[in-house]
Specification:
The chain is α/β, with parallel strands linked by helices. The chain contains twelve helices and twelve strands. Strand 11 and strand 12 form a beta hairpin. The structure holds 3-isopropylmalic acid (IPM) and magnesium ion (MG). The site of magnesium ion has 2 residues, from helix 9.
């Protein structure tokens, strides 16, 4: 059997730096666990725009459709702010999500014990936190028509449309219930059914799907109240399912509870391919951080943990994913901190590549 294939798209800003550390981890699995991957690399975002005048070349899109999993770094940067909307770096990422039909975006927010002090919330509120946000990723206001900026009378109007079909809600709800079944069997669905028809339909469909999962305790919350509860007592949640825009906001808020955006991975999953693996793209939740790019300051952990999610969700290697997660935990417990995690007196930061090396060393020690 041929090796599983990975397409790596480092992207912009700190993307290439953090991805270089993921490559060390991938190589380690090939050398030490006999898990070799066929890795190819290509451009996305501003890097692709600079080379091809488009944030995602058609050939790259075609490759992404063929591989077993895509690993993406980050896209965007101030240099591209002036570009037309249609060729902004972000469009490359949105095209990947849409054309691969990656409807279920899994964003875990886990607080590592060693980092509980970094949260802006009190330690007892976040210590041991382990929640999973499932964000719908291919529909809603991000993609709804009509959209645009039009002239009306003597002024312009900006338009975006929130739109959800029953089947779009149904499939992401099922992904969330399936995850809840493997976790603490609690699912909270968030929308704005008090003001939005799409929210009313969302609530109805999720409730209906819930009948197929009687063991899962389902609750509903308005998304604004959900945001408040996430800050008040996040440990009340296990799995949260929500739409594209609310998921974008709530996942950033949840991420910050854990202390640093630099820690959190994500998986975007679609329907199973012919080989049974889901269409999949893995990427850190953080952005391209242009202010620190190229200085060896970036934290590679979110990107490395995104590869751990690939091991778990694409390659059914849950034990190896856990091995990698534990290696990260050990390195943090031993005190290694990239610049984003500083705060303690007398601790010097490690560089991006030192952090990667430390994680590889912890993997070695796990054997
Ligand atoms: C995210 C990001 C993206 C989004 C941007 C980069 C298009 O904020 O993945 O959360 O809005 O979905
Ligand atoms: Mg976001």
């Amino acid at each position: 059997m041929s090796n599983p294939s990975l397409l790596i798209l480092p992207g912009d800003g700190i993307g290439p730096e953090v991805m270089a550390e993921v490559r060390k981890v991938i190589d380690w699995y090939g050398a030490k666990r006999d898990l070799a991957f066929d890795v190819s690399e290509d451009l996305v975002g501003g890097a692709a725009y600079d080379a091809h005048g488009t944030p995602l070349h058609d050939d790259t899109m075609a490759k992404a459709q063929e591989v077993d999993a895509v690993l993406l770094g980050a896209v965007g940067g101030p240099k591209y702010d002036v570009l037309d909307f249609s060729v902004k770096p972000e469009r490359g990422l949105l095209r990947l999500r849409k054309e691969m039909d990656l409807y279920a975006n899994l964003r875990p927010a886990q607080c590592f014990d060693a980092l509980a002090d970094f949260s802006s919330l009190k330690k007892d509120v976040v210590a041991g936190l382990d929640i999973m946000i499932v964000r719908e990723l291919t529909s809603g206001i991000y993609f709804g028509e009509p959209r645009g900026i039009i002239e009306e009378g003597n002024e312009r109007v900006g338009i975006n449309t929130q739109r959800y079909t029953e089947s779009e809600i149904d499939r992401v709800a099922r992904s969330a219930f399936e995850l809840a079944m493997k976790r603490d069997k609690k699912l909270c669905s968030m929308e704005k059914a008090n003001v939005m028809e799409s929210g009313v339909l969302w609530r109805e469909v999720v409730t209906e799907v819930g009948k197929d999962y009687p063991e899962v305790e389902l609750s509903h919350m308005y998304a604004d109240a959900g945001a408040m509860q996430l800050c008040r007592w996040p440990k009340q949640f296990d799995v949260i399912v929500t739409d594209n825009l609310f998921g974008d906001l709530l996942s950033d808020a949840a991420a910050m509870l854990t202390g640093s955006l630099g820690m959190l991975p994500s998986a975007s999953l679609g329907a199973p391919m012919a080989n049974g693996r889901p269409k999949a793209l893995y990427e850190p939740v953080h952005g391209s951080a242009p202010d620190i790019a190229g200085q060896g300051k970036a934290n590679p952990i979110a990107c490395i943990l995104s590869f751990a999610m690939a091991l778990r969700y694409s390659f059914d290697l849950g034990d190896e994913a856990t091995r990698l997660e534990q290696a990260v935990e050990k390195v943090l417990a031993d005190g290694a901190r990239t610049a984003d995690l500083l705060g303690e007196e007398g601790v010097d930061p490690v560089s991006t590549s030192q952090m990667g090396d430390a994680i590889v060393a912890a993997l070695d020690a796990s054997l």
